[in-house]
Amino acid sequence: MEEKGVDEKDILEELEKYRKMDLKYEDGKIFGSMCSNVLPITKKIVDMFLETNLGDPGLFKGTKILEEKAVSLLGSLMNGKNVYGHIVSGGTEANLMALRCIKNIWKEKKRKNLTKNENPKIVIPITAHFSFEKGRDMMDFDYIYAPIKDDYTIDIKFVKDTVEDEEIDGIVGIAGTTELGTIDNIEKLSNISKEHNIYLHVDAAFGGLVIPFLEEKYKRKNISYKFDFSLGVDSITIDPHKMGHCPIPCGGILFKNETYRSYLDVNAPYLTETKQATILGTRVGFGGACTYAVLKLLGREGQRKIVSKCMDNTLYLSKKLKENGFETVINPILNIVAIRDENYKETCKNLKDRGIYVSICNCVEALRVVIMPHIKKEHIDNFIEQLCEVKKN
What we know:
2 domains; 12% strand; alpha/beta; Aspartate Aminotransferase, domain 1; 39% helix; tyrosine decarboxylase activity; PyrdxlP-dep_Trfase; 3-stranded antiparallel β-sheet; 7-stranded mixed β-sheet
């Protein structure tokens, strides 16, 4: 750090140089991200709430009210009545908060000699997001990994047999898997969890703001789309900075009701409110404000139109792939397409060399494409052209 400061103009010019190195969503080159352009209104909101800190809500009472309103709106989408939650940094923090809740419920049982488990034990699908690996390492969980069936959803029979044979503290289901967009049968997981009094968490970080807005023409008859608090679900992860058009960081964690807060709060005596529940201490205030504003601005109708456009483009991509001899792993369920490819890692690298950024799957040899709002049909046509060229060479 220099003794004297640098001129603002010089600093901004330097920053602009580095910013130009970044990809931009509107260029149509980003095909593997679950984030996209934000709505223009959110840029104004970020500026308005830039200095607010939800980690100390007693100082920012209006911002805290907006977070509560945002949680209430998200909760209503999830068919909840008195939902408790927070707008957090993202799906990772949200999932960690759910795990922490399970851990502390287990600790209470341990104190009362109501469990024989040396660590809390969870049944989790192999398709779960990598944030659960972080949670296992940080909080000493024992995971039992459930296999997936031919349709790439969690094996319900395996879960049922496991909870009948072992003492289980939690079950995780996914509503919109990161790799394929598949939806686990949460209704059946809910029946299992209720029968055995087991905590059920649903990771709907991506699907939470897609599934409720799917028009009937996009739904498949053999899929259960129910995943919310109308079932026996205890908590849900839902990310406004994915399909909710909000700026990063802006994730969401919802609990069925306020009682779960007792498993999350820690003492924070030097803050204006002396209890804190989130993983992060200092938290941006604009996340809650943006979430509330976008949900109010769009309404269900506006969000439905955005989801429908993404689904139309997803089906367009799927059609173009088949016309050009490519095979998808499954017919798209949400706006995610997985393309079978034995050389998927090499193909991914070669596309990157051509300025097209896709990602890869872990559960199957495939390229992974997410059709977010910034992707247009001309971007898809260019992607198909580049993919065909890569496969020729």
